[in-house]
Structure formats: C-alpha cells, structure tokens
C-alpha cells in the first residue's frame, strides 16, 4: 500500500520512501535468503543469526521491487499480475516524482535524496537502465510536458546544472574548460544561501536536451574518475533543475530549485579493536556522508523537542548545499534503497535507522518570488510614474527643458534594463542550442564511427559509467597513452599510464596491441609483453586499472551479449590468473559455499585497489609493496574447523624488508589517505613546486613495526585424556598454506612434582580422570627451517599459545638470527579437579601454537602472568574445583547442610572400610589362583590386561602421528599453476602414490591395533579358563 502524492503537500516534514530491490548475481550465487518483509508501509527486517530478533520500521512509502515481476519483449520490468505487489518505475514516479513536480510548479523548492549502500539500487531508482527509466528522466519528461500544457498562461525557463562532490571537492560535470585544481568554491550569500561559484547552468527547452546534458555529465564524471583515480561509489552526484515561471497576467514570478541527489554508498567498513588504525579514517572521503548523518540526527532531535545547540551544516560541502533541503526552505523526499539479502543485514539495518531519523525532520517551505522579476516590476512602476510626470510637465508647460531631458534619460535607461532582463533568457537558450547541436553532431559522428571501425569501450565499477567512453582504432598505427600531441595518438589518463603506453595496429582488418617498455598491459586476465592480436570482446587493462572491452569490426559482432563483461568479470579473470577462483569456467558456474563466495568477492574488489596502491607507491618513491592474502581462520581454531576465511593485505617495505599485515578495513582506509597524498603530489607537480616530505607519523604508507603472526600449528590434546605422552614434529602453516617452519613439541603427563608418568599410569577409560588431579607439561624443543629468518637474518621469532579457558596467551622467550633455534621451553599445567568440560576439551581440541615473527625495532611479546592462577610451586592451574552456581545460603541453612554432609561422610567411611576388607580377601584368593597355575620354577606374574591394552594404545597413537603427517602432505599437494599436460600427469601419478602410502599406513596402524586387541582378549580368555 502506498500513500498518495497529494499527501505530500499537507505538511513540510521530510517524506521517506523505502525500496527493496531483487537479489543481484552475487547474492544469488551465495544462496542468500530474503530477510526483509513488507506489510503496507511497514518494513520488517530479521537478524539472520537470530530468527527471533526482528525490527519493524514504518515509513511514508514502501515499495516491494524484490519479486513478482517479469520483463516484456522490450526489457521493461512489469508486474507478473495486474494489481500485484511489485512496484515498478512508474509506481515510484507516481508517488514521489509527481509530488516533487507539483511542488516545483507551485513555486516551492523540492529535493529528492537517494540513500543506501553501494549496489542497493540507488542509481536504478534515480536514473534507471534502458527502458526502465528512473525518477530523473521521467521527471524531466513530465516537467516539459507540463510547461507545454500551460504555455498560454505562463512563460517557463528551465536551467540545468550537474555536479559531483568527491573527497570534499566540487567538480562541474558540464564545464567546457579544464578542471579547476581543488574544485569549485562554495560561497554564501544572505539571499541565496550557499551556492557553487562558477557552476555552469545551461538553459533547456526539451527533455531530450536534458538527457543529452546528463550523458555529457556522465562522460565527464567517467573521465574525472579515471583521471583522479577516484571511486564513483564514494562520490555524491547533484542534478539541479532551476524552474522559473513568469505569469504575465498576474505579474507574478515563481522560482524553484529541484535538487536531485544520488548520495555516495552508505556502507561502512567493519572495524574492531584488532583493526584499529593509528591514522584516523580518510576523513575527506567520508566527511560529507558522516556530516549528513550528524545533521539529520540533530534535526531529528529538534523535531522531538530536544535542545540542540548546533546543527553542523558548515562541516562539509554536501550539507552546505543541502541546507535548504534539510530543515530549510524545501519540500524534501528521501528514497532509501535496500538489499534484502542476509549477507547485507548490517548495512540494510543501518539504512533503515538512518531513514527513520530523517522522517522526523521538519522543513519550512515557502513559495519563492524571483528577485529579477521584482526588479522588472519595480522598473515598470517607476517608468509609469515618470511618464505621468512627463505628461504633467507637457500640460503645464512651466517646467524647464533640463528636467524633461533628465526624466527621459531615466525612462530610456529603465526600458533598456527591462529589455536586457527579458532577452537574457533567449540569448542563453540560443547559446545552449548551439552547444546542443554540436553535441548532437558529435553523437551522430560517433554512431557512424561505431559502424565502421573497431574500438575499445570503458568498463567502470559503477554500471552507470560503463560504456560511456569509446576510443576508435582506425586503420594504421596508433599510440595510446598520456600523449595527445600527435594526430595519430589516442589520449587516455589514469594511474600507471605512460606517456606512450602501447601501440594499436589496424591492418587488413586485424587489430594487434603491442605494450611498450615498462608499461603494464593485461589481456583477458594475463599480463602481456609481446604483440597480441585482439579478438572481439577481449578484455584489456591498461596501467593500474583502466579497463576496456575491445569491440571488433561490425562483421565480427553478431548477437553477443556484452553485458556479462562487467567490472567484476574483469577482476574475476585477474583472480583466476592468480589461482583464486570458484571452480568451473566462470564465476557462479557452481553453487559455491556462501562464506567462500563472500571472500572471493572481497578479493576481486581489492585487486584493483592493491594495484593502484602499488602504482602510487612507485610514483611517490615509497618503496612499499602490497599483496593480497587469504587467511584461513581454521588455523587459529582449536578444533581445526575450516569455517571461514578472510582477506588481509601483506605490506612489505622492500629495502628494509619490514612486513605488516593489514586487515581489509585498515587497507581501504589507508588507500583513501594514499589518494589524498598522491593528488596533492600531482597538484604540486603540475604547478612546478617541490613536494615537501610527509612526516612519518602522517604517512599512510608507513606503520611502526610490530610482531607478525607467521603461521600456526595444532598439537592435539587427546592423548592427555589417556595419560599417554606425545611427541610430534608439527608443520607450522602460513595463512596461504605455506610451510613456515617445523616445530618439535611434546605433551608429557606427569606427577605434581614434574616426573613423567610411566606405562602403568595409562588409562583405558578417560572418565577415570573425573574429579581427580591431572598434571602435564607442554614442551617446545626446537624450531627448524624458519622461512622468516631465511629471508632476513636480522629477525627473530616467538611461540605463543593458550590452553582451555586461559584469556591471556603465554609466549616463549624471543630467539633471534637463527634458522634452527633451540627453544627448550617447558610449561607445567595442572587441573586440580578435572571436570567433564575439561575432559571434552582434551578429547576434541588442540592447543594452537602461534609462530610470531619479530622485526628490528619491535618489542618482544610478554606473557601476562598476572592474569593466571598458579600454585605455590609455580604450576599454572587450568581448572580448580568448581563452586556451585547457587545463591548464597544463610547461616541456618548452611549449618543444616553441613550436618547432612557430615552424616553422609560417616556412611561413606563405613562403606569404604567394608569394601577394603572385601578387596583384601579377593586379592588373597587371586594370588592363590595365580600361584596354583604357575610352574614350580615360579615364573613372573603376567602383566594385567589393562597394562597390555595401554601399551597397544600408545603404539597406535604414535603410528597415527605419521599417518596424520601424510594426510597433511596430501592436503598441501597441489599442481603448479604453470603445469602443462605432462606436468598434470606427473602430478596425478605423484598424488596417487601419496594416496597409496596414506592408505597403507592407515591400514597398518588399524590392523596392528586389531591384532593387539585380539591377542589381549585371547589371553584374557585363557586366564579366565585357568581361574575357573
């Protein structure tokens, strides 16, 4: 159910609409489920981790565009059934667009804000795609239709402006000149409020003209994004339509501004204490959106009667320009767009909360009268008075000629001013028509070229900006790069683009691409350095991230679907070339694990950012390299569950060989800060200034050195439940499966004084430990083959670990400069009262041994002993006798409980004494039976079955250690990425051999255990026969 558009005019509060889009390809591949439901104008969102946790929100308009639609032959999305719940583009426009248009025609300022995370459907709702036109083009069509329908009663003038705010810089997207360094300035006047100085406003008299200007602005936006190395999802786009209506009969003029705002993506980088950055977030990149949130919160507080001292309009460019739209002279609508997928829960909930605050804001909209028209009226009134005076002077005949001459001069001056004001619109319109004709001629020429020549087509992360730039490759040889002096050159700008980057040759209807020295060129995901012949729909990446799709001659094109070659496709090819893919021939070709898919999309999102960071580092002479790694969280899980993975960025200072590991959130923040430094460097370079050295503590490429987690090894604790000692050689595995070192470790069950237990102390049933004391030692003997030290001898290592409920890790002393260091570290642990929970932990978990790398200048890791419980002998207590989780008893209840316990204790003592007597009697009978069955020689007593079984179990544990090592080798055994067919055959043979070895070892171990158990059972039966 939707509110009617006429409802918008009764109040001046901000109206809020929410729209839910369909699943995108990424969410469908991930098997996402819908967590948003809609009833009338209410939205309900469910926490995917807790089905009972639901939040409900109510808004002025709610649009269900997630399901219930189909596409007609022209590609238009329409409801499957007439009157269905699906809200198409027309439905949204009828509610929001018609209301905004009617407000503007009445003389009110009107604003439409689109808010939501990147990819949630903001651009689709605002601009649309193909036949599914969005609010902006539909609004322009209806505006000029209304102007034509009312042209008898009023004269209308429409001016169009288009700007972008990126990194707190204003870019005029319709500017005909070069971009102003630092962007346009925002100024303030008492009458006009905040405005952009020098912003081009273009008069328009038809909707096609407006669409043409939007295309021109989009083209400029694409070029600016490439040139500035900017991410369009972090920029705000504003379209400003100025409508001036002159009612000649009533001598009234109404002037209104229609602000159509596509805000930057609202997603926030998830951060936690472990991801805290010493540098604050890239403030300029997020300042406008953050300040907008602060303004909306402050205005919402004002609306509910709270005392607010300050509303921070002046804190950002965006909020300055939107001051009238938020709490000022405007009628405002916000459309918040949502993804219904469970993987977007946090962002969708944040968007709903933001929109809920916005709907509380109240504006003070008034009809606007044009100051220019007021001047015309005043001039006309003054002229009428002057004419009256002249006529009176002519009638009286007594006034001097001087006064008459002066009055006529004033009258002529006023008439000239009136004529100038009235002809200004026609002049502007004529100039705009000339520009429009030139643009139309350019478009016609471009379409003609498309039917004659091959070309490359830009592909952008923002689908709106893809396909905007077409660079034609005519016959002959063409240089492509920064150079634009030659007539046979194709000029492009972007990070990593050289003066002469590559050469296209178009000969005999064959197009080849030849990279020049030190130029980065990638074709279909693979770097090329030799001349390569291009095929229709080949994917090109020039420099760091200038992405293009090659379109061949018209005869080659056929009916191919080009839409699948989007920005993600390019990055997926790069990831596949690095060995990171989801299987199959393309992304999503199989039903992938959702967590793995999320990591894959994180990876392809970061690929271009890492390439750009490396290029900026190179151009700024930072000598820092960035590389992506996939961190397997199972390496830090004591149960070894392979549940999740995450992306981290490895940062290496090349000369000093220092290494850092940054989280995804930290890297993204640093990347924006790097952009600021790089753009400042470029601006100073253009002005011929020398770049001042950046203080190290403000340098986004630098961090203080700190210990680095190199890898982990799992030492399984199950043997402790049977009080069997264990000696292992553990492979310390890095986050990408690389072997970082071999660690020799032991688990030694012992007495309370530290003496190792013997075979007679082995337990058959671990439950015998319940309630008893358990002591053991963790021994770390030696590390061998440290890859970290091999790379640079000035480094050191430490081993960290924690057991059971310990919150603080323990560390071995640091060892430096040694590839095979002796650790000789021994820690004694005890459980004073073994519980079932500890027993379960020992049988199912491992102690995770963390290998930490130390670098020159960083401090050693210290064990936090103050948080540990210890005995007087210095033994670490992992479990004490548990206390009952009951409420404290009063003294009377306590004394009753003590008496009852004493009585029970006496009964148990008497029962224990009788059992001891019975035990002594049975032992004497057993000895008699044994002596009777033995020979006169008096052979030694056979070992008990329990001891024999314990020895068999110990042998089995040790044999399984080698089996486990063989399994780990199998897991790591992978073919080389460069393997040819022969190499793959050799790999299959080697893998088969490893599998046979593993099978044989496992079979031998199990067979030996079966034989030992069978022998023990047989001997037990023989003894039973003797005893009987």
TrEMBL record:
Where does it live in the cell? Mitochondrion membrane
Q: Which residues form a coiled coil?
A: 891-932
Q: Name the keywords, alphabetized.
A: ATP-binding, Coiled coil, Membrane, Mitochondrion, Motor protein, Nucleotide-binding, Transport
Record InterPro entries: FHA_dom, Kinesin_motor_dom, Kinesin_motor_dom_sf, P-loop_NTPase, SMAD_FHA_dom_sf
Q: Which PROSITE patterns match?
A: KINESIN_MOTOR_2
Keyword Ligase included in the entry's annotation = no
Q: Which Pfam families match?
A: FHA, Kinesin
The entry marks the following residues as binding ATP, namely 116-123
A biological-process GO annotation:
microtubule-based movement
A molecular function (GO) term:
microtubule binding
Report the residue ranges that make up the Kinesin motor domain in this protein.
13-361
Q: Name one GO cellular component term.
A: mitochondrial membrane
What's the protein's topology in the membrane? Peripheral membrane protein
The UniProt entry, under PANTHER family, shows: STAR-RELATED LIPID TRANSFER PROTEIN 9
Q: What is this protein for, i.e. what is its function?
A: Microtubule-dependent motor protein required for mitochondrion morphology and transport of mitochondria in neuronal cells.
Please give the family membership noted in the entry: Belongs to the TRAFAC class myosin-kinesin ATPase superfamily. Kinesin family.
- What is this protein identified as? Kinesin-like protein 6
User: What organism is this sequence from?
Assistant: Xyrichtys novacula
């Amino acid at each position: 159910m939707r509110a009617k558009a006429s409802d918008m005019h009764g109040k001046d509060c901000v109206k809020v609409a929410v729209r839910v889009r369909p699943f995108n390809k990424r969410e469908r591949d991930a098997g996402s489920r819908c967590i948003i439901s809609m009833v009338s104008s209410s939205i309900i969102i469910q926490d995917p981790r807790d089905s009972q946790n639901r939040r409900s929100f109510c808004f002025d308009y709610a649009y269900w565009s997630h399901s219930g639609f189909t596409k007609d032959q022209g590609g238009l999305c329409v409801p499957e059934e007439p009157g269905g719940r699906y809200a198409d583009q027309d439905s949204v426009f009828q509610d929001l667009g018609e209301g905004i248009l009617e407000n503007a025609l009445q003389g009110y300022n009107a604003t439409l804000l689109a808010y939501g995370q990147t990819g949630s459907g903001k651009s689709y709702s605002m601009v649309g795609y193909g036949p599914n036109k969005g609010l902006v083009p539909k609004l322009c069509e209806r505006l000029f239709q209304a102007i034509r329908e009312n042209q008898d009663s009023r004269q209308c003038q429409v001016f169009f402006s288009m700007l972008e705010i990126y990194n707190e810089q204003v870019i005029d997207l319709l500017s005909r000149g070069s971009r102003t360094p630092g962007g346009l300035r925002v100024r303030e006047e008492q009458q006009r409020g905040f405005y952009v100085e020098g912003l081009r406003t273009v008069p328009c008299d038809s909707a096609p003209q407006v669409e043409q200007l939007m295309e021109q602005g989009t083209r400029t936006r694409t070029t600016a994004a490439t040139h500035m190395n900017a991410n369009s999802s972090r920029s705000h786009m504003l379209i400003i339509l100025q409508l001036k209506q002159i009612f000649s009969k009533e001598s009234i003029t109404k002037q209104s501004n229609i602000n159509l705002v596509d805000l930057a993506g609202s997603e926030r980088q998830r951060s936690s204490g472990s991801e805290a950055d010493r540098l604050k977030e890239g403030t300029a990149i997020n300042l406008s959106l953050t300040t907008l949130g602060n303004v909306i919160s402050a205005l919402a507080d004002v609306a509910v009667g709270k005392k607010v001292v300050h509303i921070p309009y002046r804190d950002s460019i965006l909020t300055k320009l939107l001051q009238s739209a938020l709490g000022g002279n405007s009628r405002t609508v916000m459309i918040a767009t949502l993804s219904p997928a469970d993987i977007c829960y946090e962002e969708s909930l944040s968007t709903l909360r933001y929109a809920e605050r916005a709907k509380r804001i109240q504006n003070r909209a008034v009809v606007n009268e044009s100051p220019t028209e007021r001047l015309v009226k005043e001039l006309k009134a003054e002229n009428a008075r002057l004419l009256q005076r002249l006529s009176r002077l002519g009638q009286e005949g007594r006034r001097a000629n001087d006064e008459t001459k002066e009055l006529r001069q004033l009258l002529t001056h006023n008439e000239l001013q009136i004529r100038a004001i009235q002809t200004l619109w026609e002049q502007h319109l004529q100039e705009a028509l000339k520009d429009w004709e030139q643009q139309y001629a350019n478009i016609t020429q471009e379409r003609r070229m498309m039917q004659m020549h091959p070309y490359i087509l830009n592909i952008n992360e923002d689908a709106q900006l893809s396909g905007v730039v077409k660079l034609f490759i005519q016959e002959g040889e063409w240089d492509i790069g920064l150079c634009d002096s030659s007539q046979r050159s194709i000029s492009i700008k972007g990070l990593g683009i050289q003066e002469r980057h590559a050469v296209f040759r178009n000969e005999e209807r064959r197009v080849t691409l030849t990279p020049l020295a030190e130029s980065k060129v990638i074709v279909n995901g693979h770097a090329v350095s030799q001349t390569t012949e291009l095929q229709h729909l080949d994917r090109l990446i020039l420099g760091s991230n200038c992405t293009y799709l090659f379109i061949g001659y018209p005869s080659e094109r056929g009916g191919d679907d080009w839409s699948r070659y989007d920005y993600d496709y390019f990055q997926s090819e790069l990831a596949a070339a690095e060995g990171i893919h989801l299987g199959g021939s393309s992304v999503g070709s199989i039903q992938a694990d959702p967590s793995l898919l999320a990591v894959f999309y994180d990876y392809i999102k970061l690929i271009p950012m890492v390439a750009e960071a490396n290029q900026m580092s190179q151009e700024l002479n930072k000598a820092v390299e960035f590389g992506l790694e996939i961190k397997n969280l199972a390496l830090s899980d004591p149960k070894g569950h392979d549940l999740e993975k995450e992306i981290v960025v490895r940062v290496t200072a090349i000369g000093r060989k220092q290494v850092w590991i940054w989280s995804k959130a930290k890297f993204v923040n640093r990347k924006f800060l790097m952009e600021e430094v790089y753009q400042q460097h470029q601006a100073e370079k253009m002005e011929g200034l020398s770049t001042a050295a950046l203080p190290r503590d403000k340098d986004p490429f630098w961090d203080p050195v700190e210990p680095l987690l190199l890898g982990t090894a799992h030492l399984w604790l199950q043997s402790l439940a049977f009080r069997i000692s264990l000696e292992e050689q553990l492979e310390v595995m890095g986050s990408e499966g690389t072997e970082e070192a071999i660690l020799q470790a032991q688990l030694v069950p012992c007495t309370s004084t530290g003496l190792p237990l013997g075979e007679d102390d082995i337990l058959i049933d671990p439950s015998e430990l319940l309630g008893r004391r358990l002591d053991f030692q963790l021994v770390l003997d030696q590390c061998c083959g440290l890859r970290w030290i091999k790379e640079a001898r000035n480094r050191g290592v430490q081993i960290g670990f924690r057991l059971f409920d310990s919150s603080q890790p323990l560390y071995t002393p640091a060892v430096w400069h040694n590839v095979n260091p002796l650790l000789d570290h021994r820690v004694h642990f005890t459980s004073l009262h073994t519980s079932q929970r500890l027993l379960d932990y020992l049988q199912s978990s491992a102690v995770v041994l963390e290998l930490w790398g130390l670098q020159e200048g960083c401090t050693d890791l210290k064990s936090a002993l103050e948080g540990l419980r210890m005995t007087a002998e210095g033994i670490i207590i992992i479990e004490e006798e548990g206390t009952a989780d009951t409420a404290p008893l009063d003294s009377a209840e306590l004394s009753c409980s003590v008496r009852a316990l004493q009585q029970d204790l006496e009964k148990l003592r008497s029962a224990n004494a009788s059992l001891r007597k019975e035990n002594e009697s049975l032992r004497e009978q057993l000895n008699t039976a044994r002596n009777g069955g033995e020979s006169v020689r008096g052979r030694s007593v056979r070992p008990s079955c329990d001891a024999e079984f314990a020895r068999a179990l110990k042998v089995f544990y040790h044999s399984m250690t080698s089996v486990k090592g063989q399994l780990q080798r199998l897991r790591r055994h992978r073919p080389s990425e460069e393997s040819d067919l022969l190499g793959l055959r050799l790999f299959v043979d080697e893998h088969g051999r490893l599998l046979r070895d593993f099978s044989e070892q496992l079979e031998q171990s199990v067979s030996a255990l079966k034989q030992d158990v069978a022998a023990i059972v047989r001997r037990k039966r023989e003894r039973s026969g003797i005893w009987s």
